[in-house]
Write a structure and sequence with these properties.
single chain, alpha+beta, Beta-Lactamase, five-stranded antiparallel β-sheet, globular
C-alpha cells in the first residue's frame, strides 16, 4: 500500500470535481476547489473520519469493496480505478462484462435523476447503484451478496420478490426474467457466473427449469407495467433503458405520465425516500 500516492490521488480527484458533477447543489461559501471531504464520504457510504484518514495517510488498508465505492464516488474511469486499487495494494478488478465498476457515463446521468426511480444494472440483473427513489420503491438491492445480487435468482427463490407485481402479471415477468438470463448466458458463456446461475436455478426451481426449456431469449426493459408499493398502492410506470456501448450495464429509469395519479404518488415516494435514506450515506464504514 502506497499511502502517499493514495492520499495524493484521492485529494486531487476530489478537487477536480464540482458538486454539479455528482448531482449535488453548489451551495454558498465554498472556499476550496472541488468537493468537500464529507461529500466524498457521503457518496462513498463511509464515515468522514475514515475518508479523512485516507487523505492524511493514516487510514488502514481499504477493502476492495471500499475502493469500488470510492471509485464510484469520484467518478473514476477504468484506468483511474485500477490505479486507485494499485495504490491501495489491491489487485485491480478484472475488466469483464460483470465488473462491479459502474460506467462513469451512466453515473453522470443517474446523478441528474432525482425525481424518478433509476438504477444501474449488470447484465445479470444485479443492482450496482440506485438512487433514493429506487430504494424507496424496491428496497436497497445493492446490499445483497452472492447469487441474491441477481434479480432473476431472487425472483425464483424468494416469493416476496413477486409482491411488487400484480398477480396477473407475474407469469409474464417470470418469462422475461428467464429470457434475460439466457441473453446473458449467450454473452458470457456457459462457464461464467451466468452459467452457474442457470445451473443453480434449474436445480432449485421447477418453474425456472420449465421456462428454461422454452429457449426464449431477450433483454426486455422497455415496458409499461404496474408496480405495487406497500404504502402508496399501484404505480403505473414506463421503463426506459440506456446501455453502455458493450451492453454490459444498463441504466433503468421508471417514469410516470405527467399529471397522472402515479406522478402524484412519485412526489410522495420522493418524500419517503429522503426520510428513509437521508442518514444512510453518512453511516460509518469499516476498513
Amino acid at each position: 500500500m502506497d499511502r502517499a500516492a493514495l492520499a495524493d490521488f484521492l485529494r486531487r480527484r476530489r478537487e477536480d470535481l464540482r458538486p454539479s458533477d455528482v448531482g449535488l447543489p453548489d451551495g454558498p461559501r465554498r472556499r476550496a476547489p472541488g468537493l468537500r471531504r464529507e461529500e466524498v464520504a457521503s457518496l462513498a457510504v463511509m464515515s468522514t473520519d475514515y475518508y479523512t484518514r485516507l487523505e492524511q495517510q493514516r487510514g488502514p488498508q481499504p477493502s476492495e469493496q471500499m475502493l469500488a465505492s470510492l471509485a464510484r464516488a469520484l467518478r473514476l474511469g477504468s484506468e483511474e480505478r485500477d490505479y486507485l486499487f494499485r495504490c491501495a495494494g489491491r489487485n485491480a478488478p478484472a475488466t469483464a462484462p460483470l465488473s462491479g465498476h459502474v460506467a462513469p457515463a451512466l453515473l453522470r446521468v443517474l446523478d441528474r435523476l432525482q425525481d424518478t426511480p433509476a438504477m444501474v444494472l449488470s447484465v445479470l440483473g444485479e443492482t450496482l447503484v440506485q438512487n433514493d427513489m429506487a430504494r424507496a420503491l424496491f428496497g436497497d438491492h445493492a446490499r445483497h451478496t452472492g447469487h441474491a445480487r441477481s434479480e432473476v435468482y431472487c425472483w425464483f427463490t424468494d416469493p416476496t420478490e413477486r409482491e411488487r407485481y400484480p398477480s396477473d402479471d407475474r407469469d409474464r415477468q417470470s418469462r422475461a426474467q428467464v429470457a434475460t438470463l439466457r441473453a446473458a448466458l449467450g454473452l458470457l458463456g456457459p462457464e461464467s457466473r451466468a452459467g452457474e446461475l442457470v445451473r443453480v436455478l434449474r436445480d432449485r426451481s421447477p418453474e425456472f427449469d420449465g421456462l428454461w426449456e422454452l429457449q426464449e431469449v431477450g433483454r426486455r426493459f422497455a415496458d409499461h407495467k404496474t408496480l405495487l408499493h406497500p404504502e402508496l398502492g399501484p404505480l403505473e410506470v414506463d421503463c426506459q433503458v440506456l446501455f453502455t456501448e458493450d451492453r454490459s450495464q444498463a441504466l433503468l429509469v421508471l417514469t410516470a405520465a405527467p399529471r397522472s395519479e402515479t406522478a402524484r404518488r412519485f412526489e410522495l415516494l420522493g418524500v419517503i425516500g429522503s426520510q428513509q435514506f437521508s442518514g444512510d450515506r453518512s453511516a460509518p464504514a469499516g476498513s
